[in-house]
C-alpha cells in the first residue's frame, strides 16, 4: 500500500498549461472566503488520491507530487463550478415555430434525404479533387443548395478547403459578435459487410413514424438540417438579422485527425473575426432528459476531457526462438501493458469536473438523487467529493470513466513467425485526460512507469522525445520508446456558467424546450465524452455549448449498426435552433 505523504496531487504538470489556467497567481481574490475555499479544497481533495486502490507494479508506482493542480485554476472559478449555476428565467423568442403537419412532413422528408447521401469519411481519405470517396460530399453540397435556395441566396456561402461549408448571414450591426452554429455532414462509414445486420439499409433514411434510421441519422445530420430549416423559416417570415449568424459544417469530424474541415474553417474565421470574435458556438453534444434523477433537465456539454494517443515500441535483438531470452519483446511489452493497467489513474471528482456541478444541480433540484449522493454532498460539502468519486466509479464503467483519466490498450502488433523472436513490438494506447490533469501530467505518469520497466530489462528508454528510430545510436537498437500519435488535446476550457451569455443560453433552453406539461427544465453544465470539432474554436469564444437540443433518450447506435434518431427529437432541435437564433439576435448584454 502506498502512503501519500503530502497534500498535493499525483500526476502534476511542470509544463505551461493552457493559458486560461495559468492566471492563478495573478488574480487570487485575497478575501477570506477564497482562502477558506482553497484550504478546504486542498485539505479535502487530497484524501481522494490516497491511492489505496492502486496496486503497485513491482514497486513501480509512479505518481510524482511536485505541483498542485489547483494552481492551474482560479479560485473564483473553482468556487463557482462547485455550485449549481443560477437558473435564469425562461427567455421567450419573438416567434415560436409550431410546425403544421404539412411542415412536419416536409422537414422530415428533407432530413431523410440528407441521410440518403452517403457522406462517409475515412481515415485515409485523399484530397477532395483526387479521392473519389469525396464524391457524395459534392453531391451533398449541391443537394443542400437546391433544397434551401432562399438561405443560400441570402447567405454568403464559402466552401473552405473545397468541402467545408460556411454560410454567413450578415447582420446589420457589424459591432455585434456573430453566433456560430456548428454541425458536420460526414458520417462514420457503414462497411458493406455489416449491411445485412441493419434492420433497414444504412443509407435508406427509413421512416418508421417514430425514428429515422440510417448512418448519420443521429450523428450529425438532424442537427445540420434543423439549422437550415430554422434559418429558412425565419427568413421566410421576414427575419433580418442584426447579429451575424454563421452555419459552419466540417466534412471530416469523424476522421481521426480531422484537420481538413473545421481545422481549416476555425482559423479562417479567427482571421476574419479575431480572437474571441464570436458570441457563442453551439455544436453537437448532449441534450435534454426528463429524468435526471427524476426531474427534467437540459445537460449541456460545457467541459470535455482531454485526449492523447501514444505508440509504445519495444525493440529487442530478435533471434532464433530456440534460444529465447527470459523476456522477448512481447514479454517486455506485456510487462508494460500490465503496469499501465495495474496502476490506473486515480479516481477523482473535483470542481474542475462539470460532473460535480451537475450533481450539485441534481442535489438542489432533482426529486430522486440517490440519498447516498445527496446526503454526502449536503452534509460534508467538499469533503464528500472523494467519497462520491469512489461511489460513482463503482456504478458502471461508463461512470467510472467520468471520474478520472482513462487508459485503453487498443492495438498491439509484434512477431511474424513462430520460430523467430520479434524485433519490434508496438502498442497503441488511448488516454482520455481528466479535468484536473494535462497532457504533461499524463506523460509524466507514462514515463515513470515505463522507464522503470525499460531499466529492469536493460533497455534504453526514450519517452516523448520524438526520436527517430534511425537516429538512435547503432548500439541502441534495443530500446523502449514512447511517442505521441497525432495531436494530443488538453482538457477543454470550461464554458462560463454565469453572466449574460449563460443566461441567454439557459433561458432559451427553458423557453424552447420546457419540461413535460410546461414544467421548468433545469439547465446544468455537463461533461461531454466525445471530442467534437468545437475544439477548433476555443480561440474564438469561451462560450462553447455542446448541446444538440434533443432528448438524450432519442438517439441510438451512433457509429454502429442500426443508428436511428427520434423524429420528435429532430423537431425539438428545430424549435431550439429557431429560438436561439432569435434570442441571440435580440441579445444586448455583455459580449
Ligand atoms: Zn458527430
What would you say about this model in short?
One of its GO terms (cellular component) is fungal-type vacuole lumen. InterPro entries: ArgE/DapE_CS, Bact_exopeptidase_dim_dom, Pept_M20_carboxypep, Pept_M20A, Peptidase_M20, Peptidase_M20_dimer. The protein contains 15 helices and 18 strands.
Low-confidence stretches: 1-66
Number of discrete helical segments:
15
CATH superfamily of the largest domain: Zn peptidases
Bound molecules: zinc ion
Q: What would you say the CATH architecture of the largest domain is?
A: 3-Layer(aba) Sandwich
Summarize the amount of helix as a percent range.
25-40%
Class from secondary-structure proportions: alpha/beta
Note the topology.
Blueprint: H1 32-45, H2 75-81, H3 101-116, H4 135-147, H5 149-154, E1 156-160, E2 164-169, E3 179-184, E4 211-213, H6 221-236, E5 245-250, H7 262-273, E6 280-292, E7 295-304, E8 306-315, E9 319-320, H8 329-342, H9 354-365, H10 371-380, H11 385-395, H12 397-400, E10 406-414, E11 420-421, E12 424-433, H13 439-456, E13 460-463, E14 479-489, H14 500-512, E15 522-528, E16 544-551, E17 555-556, E18 564-566, H15 567-586
Parallel strand pairs: 3-5, 3-6, 6-16, 7-15, 13-14
Antiparallel strand pairs: 1-2, 2-5, 4-18, 6-7, 8-12, 8-14, 9-11, 10-12, 17-18
Helix pairs in contact: 3-6, 6-15, 8-13, 9-10, 14-15
Bound molecules: zinc ion.
Describe the structure.
The structure is a single chain. Strand 17 and strand 18 (about 565) form a beta hairpin. It is built from 15 helices and 18 strands. It is globular, with a radius of gyration of 25 Å. The longest helix is centred in the C-terminal third of the chain and has 20 residues, at about 565-585. With about 600 residues, it is of the alpha/beta class. It folds into two domains: about 20-80 and about 305-490, Alpha-Beta Plaits; about 100-120 and about 135-255 and about 265-305 and about 490-585, Zn peptidases (Aminopeptidase). Zinc ion (ZN) binds next to loops. This is Peptidase M20 dimerisation domain-containing protein. It holds the Pfam family M20_dimer. One of its GO terms (molecular function) is metal ion binding.
